[in-house]
Amino acid sequence: MGKLGSAFYNRLVIIIPYVWLLLFFMAPFFIVFRISLSTTAIAMPPYEPVFALADGWAEFWAKMRTFSFENYSYLLDDPLYLNAYISSVVIAGVSTFLTLLIAYPIAYGMAQAPRSIRPTLLMLVILPFWTSFLIRVYAWIAILKPEGLFNQLLLSVHAIDTPLIILNTNVAVYIGIVYSYLPFMVLPLYSSLEKMDGTLIEAAQDLGCTPITAFWRVTFPLSLPGVVAGCMLVFIPAVGEFVIPDLLGGSETLMIGKTLWNEFNSNRDWPVSSAVATILLLILVIPIVFFQNAQAKADEQGR
Question: Chief subcellular site (predicted)?
Answer without folding.
Answer: membrane
